[in-house]
Specification:
Blueprint lengths: L10 E3 L20 E3 L21 E3 L7 E2 L12 E3 L7 E2 L12 E3 L11 H5 L7 E3 L21 E3 L23 E3 L22 E3 L7 H8 L7 E3 L21 E3 L21 E3 L21 E3 L21 E3 L24 E3 L23 E3 L21 E3 L25 E3 L21 E3 L5 E2 L2 H13 L29 E2 L12 H4 L6 H4 L11
Parallel strand pairs: 1-2, 2-3, 3-5, 4-6, 5-7, 7-8, 8-9, 9-10, 10-11, 11-12, 12-13, 13-14, 14-15, 15-16, 16-17, 17-18, 18-19, 19-20, 20-21, 22-23
InterPro entries: Leu-rich_rpt, Leu-rich_rpt_typical-subtyp, LRR_dom_sf, SLRP
Keywords: Leucine-rich repeat, Repeat
Protein name: Toll-like receptor 3
Length: about 550
C-alpha cells in the first residue's frame, strides 16, 4: 500500500480490516505520524514492514495474533512514542526488539501470555524515556532485580491481574523508580509478597491501587507508611475487617480513598479525621449499620461520598453538617425509609450538591412534607428507582426545580384512576432526562410534558400502556414537536437490527390492545414508512391526530 502522492498524510486508520500477510513495506509515507492497524488478523510482521514510515509517532497493533515479537521489526521507526500491543497472544518477546525505540514513552502489552522465561531487564533497558507501561493480565510472574534500572522517568506502572504472589516486590520497586507516580497491583495475589520495605523507595508515588488482594490491616499500615505523598489509594475488597485508628495519620494529602467491599462493620470513629483534604470517599458494601455524627466531621472538602449497599436504615442527625462542598452523594440500597431533615445544617444551603442517588430504598413519602432535605436546593440528578413508590406529591419536590435528570424506574407509579399521579413533572422546568419504565402506568399523553421544554430523553418501557389514541399522540409528539423520535429511549434499533426503513423498536412503547380507538390518523409518505409499535392496533383505527403527519 502506497501514499507517495499524499505528502501531508498524518493519520491512517485501518482497524478491523482483514489484511493479508505482507512481504516488504506496508506503507510508504514520509509524513505519516499515526497508524492504527488493530484487529486486522495480522499474524506476522516482516523486518521491513515499517521501513518506509520513518517519522511514525503512534502505532496500534492490538488484537492481532502476533504470538511473537522478533528483533528488528521496530528498528526503522525510531521516532515512535506510543506502541500498543494489547491482546496479541504474545508469548515471546525478543530481548532486542525495542533496541532502537529510544523515544518510546508509552508501551501497552496487556492481556497477553508472557509467562516466560523472558529477559525483562534487556527488553526494557533501551527504552530510556519510557513513562507508561501497561502489563495488565499479561501472564507476568516475576521480574529480575534490575528490570527498570534504565527507566528512571517511568510515571505509571500497571501490573494488575498478574499472579505475583511468589515474588519479592521490593526488589523491583527500587531507587530507580523514584519518579513513579501511579502503581496498579490489583488482582495480583500479593498477600505473601509484601514486606515493610516493599514501597520504601517509592517516595513520590501519588496513586496506588491494591484492590482485590487479601491483606491484614497491620501489614498494610507498615507498607504504606513511606508513601506520605499519596493522593489516591484504592483498597477495595482486600478482606479488611478492622483498621487501626491511626491508619491514615500520615496521609494528610490523600484526596481519593476507596475502601469498598471490605467487611469493616462500624470502625470509623476518628479514623477519617486526618484526611482533611479528602475529595472522594467510597465506603460502599462495607456492612456498615451505624455511622456516628463525627464520622465526617473533619473531611470538609469531600465532593463525592459513596455509602451505597450498607444496612444503615437510619442516618444520624448532623451526620453531614460540614460537607458543604459535596457534589455527589450515593445512598443506594441502604434500607432507608427517609432522609432526616437534620442531616445537614439548617443554616446552610448545600448549593454544590447536584447528584443524589437513593435507588433501592423503601422510601416513605408524606403527602404534606418534602422527603428530601430542603437545604439541597440545587439538585440536578435524582435517582429514586426501585423505591416502592406509588405516588409522588407535587409539594414533596417543590423546592427542587433545578432537577435535570430524574430516575423513577421500577416503582409502583399508577395513573389509571388518578390523572394527577405525574403532576409533579410540572414543577421541573429544566428536566432533560426522565425514566418511568417498569411502573404500573397505563395512560401517557404529551400534555404531561408541556412544562418540560428541555426534555431530551424519556424511557417508558415495561408499563401496561393502554393502546388508545394517546399512544399515537406520543409518537407524533416525539416526531413533530420534539423533532426526534429517539427522545423515546429504545425506540431506535441498533444499526445491525435495521431493516429497510423499519427503524422503530417495537419494545419502546408496547401497549395493551383495546377494541375501539377513535378516528383515523393521516400519514405522509415519510412517516408512513416508519414501523411504529402501535401500528398493529392503531393504523387501521379511527383516531384524531394531534397533528397531521
Amino acid at each position: 500500500m502506497f501514499f507517495r502522492e499524499n505528502p501531508g498524510l498524518i493519520t491512517v486508520e485501518l482497524q478491523n480490516n482483514p489484511l493479508e500477510r505482507i512481504e516488504g513495506p506496508f506503507l510508504i509515507s514520509k509524513s505519516l505520524l499515526n497508524l492504527d492497524i488493530s484487529n486486522c488478523q495480522l499474524d506476522y510482521l516482516n523486518e521491513f514492514f515499517f521501513s518506509d514510515i520513518p517519522v511514525l509517532n503512534y502505532l496500534d497493533l492490538s488484537s492481532n495474533p502476533l504470538v511473537e515479537l522478533k528483533s528488528g521489526i521496530f528498528s526503522r521507526i525510531i521516532s515512535l512514542e506510543t506502541l500498543k500491543l494489547n491482546h496479541c497472544k504474545l508469548t515471546k518477546i525478543s530481548k532486542n526488539v525495542f533496541d532502537k525505540l529510544n523515544n518510546l514513552k508509552t508501551l501497552e502489552l496487556k492481556d497477553n501470555l508472557l509467562i516466560g522465561p523472558l529477559d525483562w531487564s534487556q527488553i526494557f533497558t533501551p527504552i530510556v524515556r519510557l513513562e507508561y507501561i501497561d502489563l495488565r493480565k499479561s501472564g507476568v510472574t516475576e521480574f529480575p532485580n534490575n528490570t527498570f534500572v534504565n527507566n528512571i522517568w517511568l510515571r505509571s506502572l500497571i501490573l494488575a491481574e498478574n499472579n505475583l504472589n511468589n515474588f519479592n516486590l521490593s526488589t523491583i520497586f527500587n531507587e530507580y523508580l523514584k519518579n513513579l507516580h501511579h502503581l496498579d497491583l490489583s488482582f495480583c495475589n500479593i498477600n505473601d509478597a509484601l514486606s515493610i520495605s516493599t514501597f520504601s523507595n517509592l517516595i513520590n508515588l501519588r496513586s496506588l491501587v491494591l484492590s482485590y488482594n487479601e491483606m491484614s490491616a497491620n501489614v498494610l499500615q507498615l507498607i504504606l507508611s513511606p508513601l506520605k505523598n499519596l493522593k489516591k489509594l484504592s483498597l477495595s475488597n482486600c478482606k479488611l475487617s478492622k483498621l487501626p485508628v491511626n491508619m491514615f495519620n500520615k496521609f494528610s494529602l490523600l484526596e481519593e480513598l476507596d475502601l469498598s467491599l471490605n467487611p469493616l462493620n462500624n470502625v470509623f470513629k476518628e479514623l477519617l479525621n486526618p484526611l482533611e483534604n479528602l475529595i472522594l470517599l467510597n465506603l460502599s458494601y462495607c456492612n456498615l449499620s451505624y455511622l456516628s455524627k463525627d464520622t465526617f466531621s473533619k473531611t470538609n472538602f469531600l465532593k463525592t461520598l459513596i455509602l451505597s449497599n450498607n444496612p444503615l436504615k437510619i442516618l444520624q442527625s448532623g451526620l453531614f453538617p460540614n460537607l458543604k462542598h459535596l457534589k455527589r452523594l450515593e445512598l443506594n440500597n441502604c434500607y432507608l425509609s427517609s432522609l432526616n431533615g437534620t442531616l445537614f445544617k439548617d443554616s446552610l444551603l448545600y448549593s454544590d450538591l447536584e447528584e443524589l442517588y437513593l435507588s433501592n430504598n423503601p422510601l416513605i413519602i408524606s403527602k404534606n412534607d418534602s422527603f428530601l432535605p430542603k437545604q439541597l436546593t440545587n439538585l440536578k440528578i435524582l435517582d429514586l428507582s426501585y423505591c416502592n413508590l406509588s405516588y409522588i406529591p407535587v409539594n414533596s419536590i417543590n423546592s427542587f426545580g433545578y432537577i435535570t435528570e430524574l430516575y423513577l424506574q421500577g416503582n409502583k407509579l399508577s395513573n389509571y384512576n388518578n390523572d394527577e399521579s405525574l403532576e409533579f413533572l410540572k414543577i421541573l422546568p429544566k428536566l432533560e432526562k426522565l425514566d418511568i419504565s417498569n411502573n404500573q402506568l397505563k395512560i401517557i399523553v404529551p400534555e404531561l410534558f408541556k412544562f418540560n421544554p428541555e426534555l431530551k430523553w424519556l424511557k417508558l418501557e415495561n408499563n401496561p400502556w393502554l393502546c388508545d389514541c394517546h399512544i399515537a399522540e406520543m409518537w407524533e409528539w416525539a416526531h413533530i414537536v420534539k423533532k426526534d423520535i429517539s427522545i423515546i429511549a429504545g425506540s431506535m434499533l441498533t444499526q445491525n437490527k435495521l431493516y429497510m426503513l423499519n427503524s422503530i423498536n417495537s419494545k419502546a412503547l408496547l401497549c395493551e390492545n383495546v377494541k375501539e380507538i377513535g378516528k383515523g390518523i393521516k400519514f405522509n409518505i415519510e412517516t408512513a414508512l416508519l414501523n411504529r409499535t402501535w401500528l398493529r392496533n392503531i393504523k387501521e383505527s379511527i383516531c384524531d391526530s394531534i397533528c397531521i403527519l
